Amino acid sequence: MSPPLVEVSAISRSYAMRSGMFGRATAVHAVDGVSLAIAKGQTLGLVGESGSGKSTTGRIVLGLEPPDRGEVRFDGKPMAMPATAAWRAQRARMQMIFQDPLGALDRRLPVATQIREPLDIHGIGTPADREERVRELLRAVELTPAHGARYPGALSGGQRQRIVLARALATKPDFLVCDEPVSALDVSIQSQVVNLLCDLQAELSLTLLFISHDLRVVRQISNVVAVMYLGRIVEIGSADDLFARPEHPYTQALVSASPAPGRRSAGRIVLAGDPPNPAARPQGCAFHPRCPRAIARCASEVPALSVVGGDRQVACHLVTGAQTRDAA
Amino acid sequence: MAPLVNIAGLSVAFSGVPVLRGVDLTLHKGEALGLVGESGSGKSVTWLAALGLLPRHAQVSGKVTLEGREILGAPATELDRVRGGRIAMIFQDPASSLNPVLTIRRQLCEALALHRNLQGIALKAEARRLLDLVGIPDAGRRLDAYPHEFSGGQVQRIMIAMALAGNPDLLIADEPTTALDATIQAQILELLSTVRRELGMALVLISHDLGVVAENCDRVAVMYAGRIVEEAPSNQLFADPAHPYAQGLIGALPPLDGPRRRLTAIPGTVPDPAKMPGGCAFAPRCALASESCGLAAPSLAPIADDRRVACIRAEASRRALLGIAAE
Ligand SMILES: Nc1ncnc2c1ncn2[C@@H]1O[C@H](COP(=O)(O)OP(=O)(O)OP(=O)(O)O)[C@@H](O)[C@H]1O
Ligand SMILES: Nc1ncnc2c1ncn2[C@@H]1O[C@H](COP(=O)(O)OP(=O)(O)OP(=O)(O)O)[C@@H](O)[C@H]1O
Ligand code: SF4
Ligand SMILES: [Mg+2]
Ligand SMILES: [Mg+2]
């Protein structure tokens, strides 16, 4: 096994949130003791409910925001202090793509200029080299120089997202964080972008952190998948196996709730109770108020993430080792 | 049985640019119809036009009848009684549909007073019953809360409660769950189908999520570039789509189990409404397109019981398959 390119150890991050106009500030534990490792050339998919801390984890991994506790190591070295030369060198090797391609682009500049921007900023190559690199990048995302001359408003959603991707690849990064990169796109365009990402990853042996709440897209692109609930990882394992045999009751509900044409809702797990509130994290297992299998212990004791067999780790009092897998 | 709603040749243009180009759709009492299709294909505009909710500069033509009575261009007083009464709509952007400075009680009671003629204690009891129905815990006390004091999933349920206030015969839910997680989405859709069964209400579910529609609707209509291109019972559409665009949509969906395969992406993008190609609007992206596809826009033609498709190639091959002589 090659050593991980990205290694996240027990990171935590909380924000102060005021409830109501005169309310007291309460701490929102957006990320609470998350550990992850992504091997070179692999894709880790991060799924979970809205507000479970996926984007916060992504920002911390990229060094856009420091963790309150814990550490992120990139290629064996700790993240450099922001705004230093070492940090800039590290940052040139990592890039990100966000959900909203129109928001990520400047409406007043031709898109080719925007693809070239990171090369200008990092002073990579001569002006002629840069022009050539832009043409190459446009080709890589299956667009033409004519597209490059256009403004963002004159491109379709899928084409804009490909421009964002081309720009992210300009500095030849080793590591890419994609935060909901296809959620804003039509199903028909989504598949174009997903295919392109898979191809580029294979060609360039990119390492990816892929954040999405679309389980289908995540499975399509990931080797390993981690499931978050209220700031913690509740299950992690290899993508195909995890979606075929989810172990944590939340993952089971999530997978069964993911609608599929041709399958009627028979056997679907519909949870009761309200959506989780990050500002009022329940005691014990954070999922227990909605969990159909909760026992008394779940309300008081936090289940630890532990290996239950193979490469699967689960944080649930009822899932411990091989016996539960056989019983299922 | 007379249909509940019948839409015929509904067309809409904004400043001369046609965005809806002749939509025909029939809806029966108590039926759940799904409407899927590309963003911008006219799913929302179809129902906004039918209910007279488009801005003044929209040019609307065609026929829309509610139990035989024409409602397109009906006087405002009559439309006011239809909207929120006979037909209720949950809009795509829920946050903007609730008034942030009024309590939930005020907003629910206003809707109830307008459409149900309730007063006093009966009015309050009904407001509370509705909140209970949509599963807001501690409904009695929560009535006095403001919209921002509820979670996203709860706001969505309150929207449903408001829509149900007029005891509608038809609920149009425009992307009611897009902003929500899968587990909360499942809860809300379950709620909608329970309510539908209990009240015998018809439902139009607008979504670009094929899975959501497949599981919650009896029949599905697929829209592309301002037209309906295929209409079929849910199970048949997903098992055996006939229109190349519908086939593309279903093929583009990554599977959640089984072996991974490369996604069959539909090449290209939707045509600009201002530069619509002559003939079939899907032809530039269609793998099956032939020369005749560019000549005239195919009309929605029956290929089997309950199934219609607007594609000359699909129509021909299906008819051949069924041994129906082409005329
Ligand atoms: N800058 C901030 N200030 C205060 N609270 C924040 C901030 N950023 C995130 N949060 C809170 O932290 C929690 C986790 O947010 P995060 O954006 O990481 O969730 P997510 O899993 O990406 O959700 P989504 O799927 O909706 O994008 C949420 O409760 C959010 O409201
Ligand atoms: N008020 C308006 N003025 C001008 N054009 C409009 C207006 N409302 C809608 N349109 C245009 O009409 C077309 C159909 O829009 P509609 O909102 O019905 O699409 P949709 O199928 O609901 O898409 P989505 O899935 O993105 O909600 C689009 O091209 C849209 O830009
Ligand atoms: S620990 Fe208990 S409450 Fe949490 S998921 Fe497992 S069974 Fe459910
Ligand atoms: Mg996020
Ligand atoms: Mg719409």
TrEMBL record, chain A:
- GO cellular component labels: plasma membrane
List the InterPro entries hit by this protein, alphabetically.
AAA+_ATPase (IPR003593), ABC_transp_ATP-bind (IPR050319), ABC_transporter-like_ATP-bd (IPR003439), ABC_transporter-like_CS (IPR017871), Oligopep_ABC_C (IPR013563), P-loop_NTPase (IPR027417)
Q: How does it sit in the membrane?
A: Peripheral membrane protein
| Matches recorded under CDD domains | ABC_NikE_OppD_transporters
Listed SUPFAM superfamilies: P-loop containing nucleoside triphosphate hydrolases
Choose any GO biological process term that the UniProt entry carries and state it. Answer: transmembrane transport
Q: ABC transporter domain spans which residues? A: 6-255
Protein name, per record: ATP-binding cassette domain-containing protein
What is the protein's species of origin?
Bradyrhizobium frederickii
State the organism's lineage. Answer: Bacteria, Pseudomonadati, Pseudomonadota, Alphaproteobacteria, Hyphomicrobiales
Automatic annotation (TrEMBL), chain B:
GO terms (molecular function) for this protein are: ATP binding; ATP hydrolysis activity
Q: PROSITE patterns attached here?
A: ABC_TRANSPORTER_2
Identify the domain of life.
Answer: Bacteria
Listed under GO cellular component are: plasma membrane
- Read off the InterPro entries from this record: AAA+_ATPase (IPR003593), ABC_Ni/Peptide_Import (IPR050388), ABC_transporter-like_ATP-bd (IPR003439), Oligopep_ABC_C (IPR013563), P-loop_NTPase (IPR027417)
Give GO BP annotations, semicolon-separated: peptide transport; transmembrane transport
> Which UniProt keywords are given for this protein, alphabetically ordered?
ATP-binding, Cell membrane, Membrane, Nucleotide-binding, Transport
Q: What is the membrane topology noted in the UniProt record heading this document?
A: Peripheral membrane protein
Instruction: Name where it's found.
Output: Cell inner membrane
Any matching Pfam family: ABC_tran
Function, as annotated, reads: Involved in beta-(1-->2)glucan export. Transmembrane domains (TMD) form a pore in the inner membrane and the ATP-binding domain (NBD) is responsible for energy generation.
Q: What is this protein's record name?
A: ABC transporter ATP-binding protein
